[in-house]
Amino acid sequence: MADVSEGEGSDSRARRLRLAATLRRLRDLSGLSGRELAHRVQISQSKVSRIESGVTMPSLPEVQRWAEAVDAPLDTRERLADLTQAAVYETHAWRTALQGKAHLQDDFQERESAVRLVRNFQSAVIPGLLQTAAYARAVFALSVLPYEKEDLAAATASRLFRQEALYEGDRRFDFLITEAALRWRPGSPAQLLAQWDRLASVSTLDNISIGLIPHDRRPTVLPLHGFVIYGPVYGGNDDTAETFVEVETNHAKLTIPDFDITLYEKQWSLLTEMAIFDDAAREFLTELATEVRHEMS
């Protein structure tokens, strides 16, 4: 799910524009050109323009270097830090996002199509890009915002359409999935067996990595929730590359910008250390399937 609540989205946009206007005013008062400021802040001149127009959100270190470059007083620097923190974390409510839409799968596809690398960690459910039709339909049916019958069918079909990206060899998709997510049963045992078969099949693709984290692995990190790392996203030149993270909650999606990515990159690395891959992962799925088949017999 995804996207913007009118109130929340407009507030976030207003905070970003307020920060952009403040940075532009400070540069004007300093007498620095965009080129001169870009050199001092260690970014491109085009990024200075995007920041001042509110298109691109600067990182906190960039804002701090900006303030230093224009010789801003201490109280102004503190206010800039506050403005940056307030503008950075965007909250997009599901309920408003779904108004006028049958589903939000097209929004997800748009984000995925903009990047060449998607890293997806899930601790409660198998990622949508890997779901079978039956599993996806069961997940949508259990949503906190229930779908009408026709919308449920459309959402399921669109989720499956998104999966075509997995077969584009120049794209990279990495998944980490906990045993708890594997064992969760939104549908019947037979549907879960088919879902595990799907995981095993997709894991053989060269551009796909599926890591499974069994319960008995020694923990190296405490994952409080799932997350997806998108990026980098390129705007035409490498110096415009940006990475962002999305976290889904019951009521909304949170978008975390590039300068807080380090925390998630580190957690991804630690979770990877706990995971099993390739033949070991497929063997683990076989063991789970044997257990379920024994229950069914």
Automatic annotation (TrEMBL):
InterPro entries on file: Cro/C1-type_HTH (IPR001387), DUF5753 (IPR043917), Lambda_DNA-bd_dom_sf (IPR010982)
Location of the HTH cro/C1-type domain: 23-77
Single Gene Ontology MF annotation: DNA binding
Organism: Acrocarpospora pleiomorpha
Pfam families: DUF5753, HTH_31
Record's protein name: Transcriptional regulator
Domain of life (superkingdom): Bacteria
